[in-house]
Design the sequence.
């Protein structure tokens, strides 16, 4: 889910640490990032399907220092609060089953 343009990751939401870090020779960061990217894309599609704009809340793929994939949720507080409400309502509605 790359968004509508090249600058979709920098459309107002600051994602600290998403593009910063130290690279260790011999660590396969690409494999971890690809796995995280697939999961982030899935979550972003789900966010879009329930009416969120990726400019206010989105999943961002990254890796940790060991090359393991990491998905971070970045969003404006109001959008994240709305998402939390949707998740809480879902959990309350069926006993928390996902």
Sequence:
């Amino acid at each position: 889910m790359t968004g509508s343009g090249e600058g979709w990751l920098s459309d107002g939401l600051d994602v600290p640490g998403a593009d910063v870090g130290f690279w260790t020779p011999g660590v396969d960061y690409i494999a971890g990032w690809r796995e995280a990217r697939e999961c982030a894309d899935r979550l972003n599609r789900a966010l879009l399907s329930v009416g969120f704009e990726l400019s206010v809340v989105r999943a961002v793929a990254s890796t940790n220092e060991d090359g393991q994939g990491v998905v971070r949720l970045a969003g404006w507080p109001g959008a994240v609060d709305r998402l939390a409400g949707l998740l809480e309502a879902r959990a309350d509605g069926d006993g928390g089953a996902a």
Q: What stands out?
A: The first helix runs from residue 29 to 49.
